[in-house]
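Input record, target 12 of the design panel.
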């Protein structure tokens, strides 16, 4: 037995309350190395008389764990428990395929003896409902739609910036171009979005800013006049809510725009500015900026990347914290938004995000917080900071298999299984799963213009744990290279067209089986014939097959939704979604 691979971490993603009173335990072993894992468990204060020694000893039970998945190097084992007195002590009995038997305890490995079974145990001292990680149930049944406001629709030409270009979806926008998209344009197309089936609107920043993308905030408390005003935004939120749609706003609390009142005061008054401590400034003067990439030495102040126009906020400063928390709660209390998406969230301190979580939860029950974190995110997902993150670490694996073929099917399911096991399921269920966005090349472009391939990858994403998100224009079959080309004006001529119909069908399937696909278990495997098989179990059972091989594969299925399936054959780039 590979004892170095045995692993369990108490009070973590390996030991957590899932629902009230229900404790889930996970155990890790080396891949294909262990035949059986059993849990030795009981209440720490329940005893029994040992007939051999005539002494009272801990009263325990044993329960076989089930293998729930296989990753690149590990097998994962799980068990669910309810304890009558809401407390537990436990350890693991591990039986290797080589015949070895060991106890894995809080003090390491031990020989399996009667005495060792009652000593050195892990403890879950009490099941505190207050400590259970909670994420909004409504979010688990949401299909998000990301809107880049400047390029979605121009509903009011009176607020067009100077130099606004004609609305040409075939254009390749430059970084400084404007096309006049605004909130009225979104209002004008709410019925179209409702017809598509989405029930969550995720807006890139709407606040006053100097750029077309608005990630260089000038005023967090106002709507950019290029988009409209607060009265129009209030109407948009109300109209969205009447259609059963949630609203998520995007904000940057890591840095602020150079044209903000605060930074302009620092530029004017230097160290004497009342806002000097709002930033990370090492020396003056602040201009010209020293860019180390150009060999100009250490910057005078910290920024996002080395972008001099985006000075980094000092979120350790209580004044900055209070200001940003006022921003966060203002848009909840005044306009009733449902969620925040937080840009560059990983570069802000955890202390601030914990205050942010408390403030937003007090402002609105079941409020959703999504952080932009592109890497492993456990520190943010312990119930006191974010609900979930932008799940790039998950969806990039999908792209690497389905679209660019960097990964085999076997590697894909192993990597996705590993990723799911990194977090509690209540966090996995509210991860934002997107195959493209304002930051990446469009799905169809990555698929080299192959609509079937793009739709297959999208269908796979829609069967996964987590909240699927459509980037505006995906339903129209829009293409686009990396930013800024992925931000082309929306092609409304393709509304209700062939690609729209296929995306609509996927969304309808996800919404119909929202409970199972939102909160059910997930098992990923590769069949002997090479198909990727997804099994989602919950209120219903969903079984999906995806052919990413080069040849048709025989498959007996009764599809609820399919692509490339005919006469018992699943074609390459095809999929079958079945509800059992």
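The sequence produced for target 12 reads:
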């Amino acid at each position: 037995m590979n004892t170095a691979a045995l692993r369990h971490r108490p009070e973590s993603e390996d030991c957590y309350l899932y629902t009230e009173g229900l404790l889930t335990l996970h155990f890790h072993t080396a891949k294909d190395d262990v035949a059986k894992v059993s849990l030795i468990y009981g209440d720490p204060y329940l005893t029994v008389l040992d007939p051999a020694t005539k002494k009272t000893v801990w009263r325990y039970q044993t329960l076989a764990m089930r293998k729930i998945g296989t990753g690149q190097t590990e097998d994962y084992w799980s068990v669910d428990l309810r304890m009558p007195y809401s407390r537990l002590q436990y350890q693991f009995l591990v039986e290797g395929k080589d015949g070895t038997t060991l106890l894995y305890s809080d003090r390491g490995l031990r020989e399996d003896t009667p005495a060792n079974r009652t000593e050195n145990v892990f403890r879950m001292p009490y099941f505190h409902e207050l400590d259970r990680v909670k994420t909004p149930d409504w979010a688990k049944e949401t299909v998000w739609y990301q809107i880049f406001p400047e390029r979605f629709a121009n509903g009011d030409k009176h607020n067009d910036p100077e130099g606004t270009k004609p609305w040409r979806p075939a254009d390749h926008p430059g970084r400084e171009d404007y096309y006049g998209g605004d909130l009225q344009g979104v209002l004008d197309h709410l019925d179209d979005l409702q017809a598509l089936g989405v029930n969550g609107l995720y807006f890139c920043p709407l606040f006053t800013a100097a750029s077309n993308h608005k990630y260089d905030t000038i005023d967090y408390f106002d709507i950019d006049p290029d988009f409209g005003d607060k009265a129009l935004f209030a109407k948009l939120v109300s109209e969205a809510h009447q259609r059963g749609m949630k609203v998520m706003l995007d904000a940057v609390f890591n840095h602020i725009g150079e044209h903000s009142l605060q930074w302009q005061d620092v530029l004017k008054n230097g160290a004497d500015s009342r806002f000097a401590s709002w930033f990370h400034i090492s020396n003056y003067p602040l201009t010209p900026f020293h860019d180390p990439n150009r060999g100009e030495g250490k910057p005078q102040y910290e920024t996002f990347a080395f972008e001099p126009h985006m000075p980094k906020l000092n979120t350790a400063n209580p004044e900055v914290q209070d200001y940003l928390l006022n921003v966060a709660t203002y848009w909840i209390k005044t306009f009733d938004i449902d969620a925040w998406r937080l840009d560059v969230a990983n570069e802000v301190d955890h202390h601030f995000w914990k205050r942010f979580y408390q403030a937003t939860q007090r402002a609105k029950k079941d409020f959703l917080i999504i952080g932009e974190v592109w890497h492993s995110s456990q520190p943010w997902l312990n119930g006191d900071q974010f609900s979930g993150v932008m799940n790039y670490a998950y969806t990039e694996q999908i792209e690497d298999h389905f679209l660019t073929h960097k990964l085999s099917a076997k590697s894909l399911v192993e990597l996705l299984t590993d990723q799911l096991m990194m977090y509690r399921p209540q966090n996995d269920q509210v991860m934002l799963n997107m195959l493209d966005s304002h930051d990446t090349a469009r799905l169809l472009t990555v698929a080299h213009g192959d609509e079937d391939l793009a739709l297959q990858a999208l269908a796979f994403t829609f069967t996964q744990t987590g909240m699927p998100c459509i980037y505006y224009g995906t339903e129209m079959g829009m293409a686009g290279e990396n930013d800024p080309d992925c931000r082309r004006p929306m092609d409304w001529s393709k509304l209700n067209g062939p690609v729209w119909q296929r995306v609509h069908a996927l969304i309808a399937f996800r919404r119909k089986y929202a409970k199972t696909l939102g909160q059910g278990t997930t098992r990923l495997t590769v069949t002997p014939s090479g198909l990727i098989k997804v099994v989602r179990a919950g209120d219903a059972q969903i079984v999906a097959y995806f052919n990413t091989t080069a040849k048709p594969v025989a498959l007996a299925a009764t599809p609820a939704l399919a692509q490339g399936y005919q006469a018992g054959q699943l074609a390459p780039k095809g999929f079958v979604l079945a509800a059992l």
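The domain at 3-124 is CATH 2.60.40.10 (Immunoglobulin-like).
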